[in-house]
Specification:
mainly beta, Protocatechuate 3,4-Dioxygenase, subunit A, Immunoglobulin-like, 2 domains, 6% helix, 39% strand, globular, binds fe (ii) ion
Length: 291
């Protein structure tokens, strides 16, 4: 079992519920593992977040995530993410099914696509996958691939079945519109000293969720958020359609960065949205996975 997985079970067993995650998730525990580039990368993909044309009868796929630095909690703003994938028939195209996305000032990225088709690699099909190349400032390019839970082609694929890929095989949740939703956070081996963090002395910073760690969440997880005004905040967990399941936290906050510990709610496994409301107004949301 991978160390991170072992650690998760360890925490779930509530043996160490009181230790802050910064101590538990040392660098080597959170860093996202790499994967092969493959032959289909093309420079100069369009700067778009909807990378797939409409394909009849094929559900849309929505992937969101946050890019973090190697302390496992500091979001990396303005990182460049190149994604490329096969179309529904398992073929790569020159223009479609490729896109460049920049993370926002809280490290978030999102794109819309369809689930990639499988293609033959010699005598077997590679599992459905999305290629990622992430670049932040002068750091080396980070190249990896995302796979999907339950894909029967994973076991025979040397890259997807590698133990190091386990955190890159994500579940997909079907929403009320039959679309597929997934979350993939990326932990770059980038030092926080090189990351442009938000200057909270500025007056134009919106209230927002900064980080949720770890994600998939565990029994006791950490959430940091910023309040830009003295206000009442509430943090709810909702299903993928935005319907509130329960409130995780309610308190008043001052104009500052807040770091709180939350308990995993008693909800069935799946994808959820953690939503921040300030004085009753919904201001930000991040997707989390309950394993
Ligand atoms: Fe590929």
């Amino acid at each position: 079992m991978k160390r991170r997985q072992a650690l998760k079970s360890f925490i779930s067993a509530s043996i160490l519920p009181f230790l802050p995650f910064k101590q538990l998730f040392a660098q080597e525990e959170c860093i996202t593992t790499d994967d092969i580039l493959g032959p289909y990368f093309i420079e100069g993909a369009p700067n778009i977040s909807n990378i797939a044309p409409a394909v009849s009868e094929v559900p849309r796929l929505y992937i969101t995530g946050t890019v973090y630095a190697n302390d496992c909690v500091t979001p990396v703003p303005n990182a460049l993410i190149d994604v490329w994938q096969a179309n529904n028939d398992g073929a790569y195209e020159d223009i479609d099914y490729r896109g460049k996305i920049y993370t926002d000032d809280a490290g978030n990225y999102a794109f819309e696509s369809i689930q990639p088709g499988k293609y033959l690699n010699g005598s077997y099909y590679r599992p459905s996958h999305i290629h990622y190349k992430v670049l932040y400032k002068n750091n080396p390019e980070f190249v990896t691939q995302l796979y999907f839970e339950g894909d029967t082609s994973i076991d025979i694929d040397p890259w997807a079945s590698d133990p190091s890929a386990v955190d890159r095989i994500i579940p997909l949740t079907v929403d009320d519109n039959s679309n597929l939703n997934g979350v993939f956070d990326i932990y770059l081996d980038v030092d926080i000293a090189t990351v442009n963090t938000i200057d909270y002395n500025r007056n134009d910073i919106a209230s927002k969720i900064l980080s949720i760690a770890p994600n998939p969440i565990v029994e006791n997880f950490e959430l940091s958020f910023y309040c830009n005004i003295k206000s009442e905040v509430s943090i709810d967990i909702c299903d993928v359609m935005g319907r509130k399941a329960t409130t995780l936290y309610q308190s008043s906050c001052n104009k500052q960065l807040n770091q709180i510990q939350l308990k995993k709610p008693n909800l069935k496994a799946g994808l959820y949205i953690i939503r921040l409301a300030v004085d009753g107004r919904k201001v930000d949301a991040k997707r989390v996975l309950i394993p």
